[in-house]
Amino acid sequence: MNLGVIGLGSMGKRRIRLIKENFPQITVVGIDSSKERCDEVKSLFDIDVYNDSNEFFAQNKFDAVFISTPPLTHSNLIKQALNSNLNVFTEINLVSDGYVENINLANQNDLVLFLSSTQLYRKEIKFINSKVQSSDKITNYIYHIGNYLPDWHPWESYKNFFVGNKKTNGCREILAIELPWIVDVFGDIKKLHVSKNKITDLEIDYPDSFFINIIHENGSRGVLIVDLASRKAVRNLEIINEDIYLSWDGTPQGFEEFDFDLNEMKKLNLYEEISKENEYNQTIIENAYLEEIKDFFNVLSGDANEGLHSFEKDKYVLDIIDTIESINDNDVFEV
């Protein structure tokens, strides 16, 4: 298989590294407008790299492309790839521009349009889903995700990173990462109450803290707190019903379940081996990124029908996020 990776920033490099380490039979070629990034990737992975898109496509016969550029560029790149008869793996989009057109284009050309949703591939999320789905009780949750925005990419200014843009802001990215699994586990959303403010001196033109009360169609309720102010990177989750108590701090080592017989918390060890890059915080592991790449390849080979997420499901999630951002502070919204 021949793959092109479009965009050689942090995610593009991660995709290339995981493919090179786990699928040595696959040929990978990269492209980026930055010569510095191209030189870095060529040095790191010993692959061919391009600055010019015409040359990139003219000199290579790809089976698929990975789109790892900033989200606002995705729609046109997806369309270009599909019109070139290429299967597509894309990172999260954050905006739904071109969704209907690109879904139709992929269907018409019988091409795979695969959307990343890494949290759905975490073993902890799969375990939570199995527990909640097997329970006949309404289940509630409390979830706080906080991480100081300048710490996301310490090697560059947040002003030069897409999370500095109001359209693809940091809170929006967190919501786009987390809401797909929340909806998958707890069901569609019926009602939202949103409170938001800005508590940092960061040079951003959007709120950096959201407090969201969610009521799901099945009666489950959740409190979702998202912020870009927490100097300690946190991902703290509690899942609660009469038969379940789970807690998770976002790390593989910090996943626990209450044992009703022993009347104490017990650790849940779900991983035989953990893959981790030191430049990222402790809640980010490589295992799930690899699993969704494998899933994409399984879809390409016909061993799977589709990935765990889709553009159709993501359109619903992005509409919810649009609603959360548009609701006036302390308003209640019926979805």
**Helical segment tally?**
9
What is the CATH superfamily label of the largest domain?
A: Dihydrodipicolinate Reductase, domain 2
Biggest sheet strand line-up: 14-13-12-11-7-10-9-8-15
N-to-C SSE series?
EHEHEHEHEHEHEHEEEEEEEHHE
Mean pLDDT level: 94
C-alpha Rg, in Å?
A: 20 Å
CATH-level-2 architecture of the largest domain: 2-Layer Sandwich
Distance between the termini: 43 Å
SSE class: alpha/beta
Helix content: 25-40%
Major sheet characteristics: 9 strands, mixed
User: How many strands appear in the DSSP assignment?
Assistant: 15
What is the level 1 CATH name of the largest domain?
Answer: Alpha Beta
The oligomerization state is single chain
Key terms:
335 residues; alpha/beta; Rossmann fold; Dihydrodipicolinate Reductase, domain 2; 15 strands; 33% helix
What's this model, at a glance?
By secondary structure, the chain is an alpha/beta fold.
SSE diagram, text form:
Blueprint: E1 2-6, H1 10-22, E2 27-31, H2 35-45, E3 48-50, H3 53-58, E4 64-67, H4 74-83, E5 87-90, H5 99-108, E6 113-115, H6 123-134, E7 140-146, H7 170-186, E8 189-197, E9 209-216, E10 221-227, E11 234-241, E12 244-248, E13 255-259, E14 264-267, H8 287-301, H9 311-326, E15 331-334
Parallel strand pairs: 1-2, 1-4, 2-3, 4-5, 5-6, 7-10
Antiparallel strand pairs: 7-11, 8-9, 8-15, 9-10, 11-12, 12-13, 13-14
